[in-house]
Inverse folding.
C-alpha cells in the first residue's frame, strides 16, 4: 500500500513530502493509521545533525492512531484499537524491562537504525530503503511498527492529546516525579518551558512542590507555565538564582530540571549553582554527542553532596505510565488540552518547526488527512 510521509533526505535541509510504498506487517508487527503527531524538538536533533540516524528517514516519534492490521504473533493490540506510540520500545523481557526500567529497554538500540528489530524495512521509495525515527516514523499517514512500540488506550481519550503522552508529557512529568523525586514542600527550578519543560512543571505541581520556578526568555512560555502550576516565572538563570535564594532563605532549590532545546555547559552550571546542599540536577535536554556540556567542581559535588543525573523518557515505564497519565488527564489533574498551541497539516510541517524554533509553540500537532 501507499503512505504519504515527511522525509529527511539530508541533514540541515527541510523535510520533503513524498508518497512511499509500505510493506505489509511481518511477525509481531502492526500496520497503523496515524491520526495525530506532535512536533517535538527531538526530531530537530536529527534534522540538524545533533544525532546520527539512517537517511533518508521518516521523522515523527510522538504519535497516536488506530490499528489497521496485525501480523503473526501480535498480542498487545488488535485491529480497531486506539494506541499511543512509545518512542522507546518496551520488549518486557530484557534485563532492564524486567527490573522496571522500561525506558532502558535493550530494543532501544534499534531506534536510529531505520529498520525494525527483525531487520524488516517497511518503507521504500525513489531513494530505496527509508528509515523510521525511533522505529515509529509518525510523520506519515500510515506506518508499520513493532508491537513493542504500541500502547493500547481506551477510545474515550481524544487522539489529538493522546499523541502527546508518547514523548513530551511523560518525559517532562517523569523528570520531576521520578528523576528529581520531587517531594511535598520542595523548591524546583525548571529551565526551558517547551513541550517537555511545561510537563516538568505539571509533574512538580502534582508531586507537591511548594515553589516551582519556570525559566524561559519567552513571555508566551512563562505565561503558560504560570497557568499550569508554576508559582514563579523568570526570563533568566540569574533571576532564578536570586529568587531561589529568597524563597528558601538562602538554602537553594531542592532540584533543578534542564529541559531547554539544546543543553549547554552554561545552563548546567546555572542549575548546579541554584541547587542546595544534597540537591539534584536532572538533565533531560540533549545536545550533539561531541559537545562537552558538563564541566563542574567535583569537590563541590562531594562536599555539598550534589547530584547530577540524566533522565531518559522521564524514567517512566511506558506500558504503565502512559495509561496513568491519561487517567490523570481524565480526572482533571493533568492538563493536556492546554498544551496544544496550534495544529498543522502534514504539508505544513516545515512551517510548524519554524514556529517551534521561533518560540511560538508549547506543542504543535500534525493532524493527518486520509
Amino acid at each position: 500500500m501507499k503512505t504519504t510521509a515527511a522525509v529527511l533526505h539530508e541533514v540541515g535541509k527541510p523535510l520533503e513530502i513524498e508518497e512511499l510504498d509500505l510493506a505489509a506487517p511481518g511477525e509481531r508487527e502492526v500496520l497503523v493509521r496515524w491520526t495525530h503527531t506532535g512536533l517535538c524538538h527531538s526530531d530537530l536533533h536529527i534534522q540538524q545533525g545533533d544525532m546520527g540516524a539512517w537517511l533518508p528517514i521518516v521523522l515523527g516519534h510522538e504519535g497516536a492512531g488506530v490499528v489497521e492490521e496485525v501480523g503473526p504473533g501480535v498480542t498487545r493490540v488488535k485491529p480497531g484499537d486506539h494506541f499511543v506510540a512509545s518512542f522507546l520500545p518496551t520488549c518486557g523481557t530484557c534485563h532492564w524491562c524486567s527490573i522496571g526500567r522500561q525506558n532502558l529497554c535493550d530494543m532501544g538500540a534499534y531506534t536510529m537504525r531505520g529498520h525494525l528489530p527483525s531487520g524488516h524495512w517497511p518503507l521504500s521509495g525513489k531513494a530505496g530503503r527509508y528509515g523510521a525515527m525511533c522505529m515509529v516514523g509518525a510523520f506519515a499517514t500510515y506506518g508499520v511498527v513493532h508491537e513493542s512500540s504500541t500502547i493500547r488506550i481506551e477510545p474515550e481519550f481524544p487522539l489529538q492529546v493522546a499523541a502527546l503522552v508518547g514523548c513530551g508529557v511523560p518525559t517532562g512529568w517523569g523528570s520531576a516525579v521520578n528523576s528529581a523525586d520531587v517531594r511535598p514542600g520542595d523548591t524546583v527550578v525548571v529551565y526551558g518551558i517547551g513541550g517537555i519543560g511545561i510537563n516538568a512543571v505539571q509533574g512538580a505541581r502534582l508531586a507537591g512542590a511548594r515553589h516551582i520556578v519556570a525559566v524561559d526568555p519567552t513571555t508566551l512560555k512563562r505565561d503558560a507555565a504560570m497557568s499550569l502550576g508554576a508559582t514563579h516565572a523568570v526570563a533568566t538563570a540569574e533571576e532564578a538564582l536570586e529568587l531561589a535564594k529568597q524563597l528558601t532563605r538562602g538554602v537553594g532549590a531542592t532540584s533543578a530540571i534542564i529541559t531547554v532545546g539544546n543543553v549547554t555547559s552554561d545552563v548546567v552550571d546555572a542549575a548546579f549553582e541554584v541547587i542546595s546542599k544534597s540537591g539534584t540536577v536532572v538533565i533531560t535536554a540533549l545536545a550533539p554527542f561531541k559537545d562537552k556540556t558538563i564541566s563542574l567542581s567535583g569537590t563541590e559535588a562531594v562536599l555539598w553532596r550534589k547530584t547530577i543525573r540524566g533522565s531518559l523518557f522521564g524514567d517512566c515505564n511506558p506500558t504503565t505510565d502512559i495509561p496513568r497519565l491519561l487517567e490523570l488527564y481524565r480526572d482533571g489533574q493533568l492538563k493536556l488540552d492546554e498544551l496544544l498551541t496550534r495544529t498543522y497539516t502534514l504539508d505544513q510541517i516545515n512551517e510548524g518547526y519554524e514556529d517551534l524554533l521561533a518560540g511560538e509553540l508549547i506543542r504543535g500537532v500534525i493532524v493527518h488527512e486520509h
Observations:
- The chain is about 25% helix and 25% strand.
- The mean pLDDT is 96.
- The first strand starts at residue 2 and ends at 8.
- Residues 19 and 283 are 38 Å apart (CA to CA).
